[in-house]
Model the fold of this input.
Amino acid sequence: MNINKATVDLIKEFEGCKLTAYKDVAGVWTIGYGTTARAGLGIIPVEGMTITQAEADRLLLDGLNKFADQIRPMLPADINDNMFGACLSLAYNVGAYGFGRSTVLSKLQDGDYAKAADAFLLWNKAGGKVVKGLVRRREAERKLFLTPVFEQVP
Done:
């Protein structure tokens, strides 16, 4: 289970990159590609804080690697990199704890990959309200999850 380009591209697309701290839709101070204090990456975004593009890129990669290490042991060994990437995107957005309690994970652990794919669509709310951006993100994660990975022929 590796972090592939499709995963990074999906997360970048939906997180966007802001080099000045802002409050997200849930009111949480955020910077870069969705980095919050809860990510535990040694940065606590606050009003007025700025970072460079290089710092944003490093925080994204550090965050992805951290969340990947946290969720990898929870997942079945036979999932492909796109399935892993979709799970990683969800975990990056809702936290490893949230992912660990998700229907996505429980269906994966039951071996019901079709229901796991559909369960991504349940994670579409922030502050108890459906958010259009989360609806689109979950649809993109589901699509990535269902996309086969083909080995390249040398």
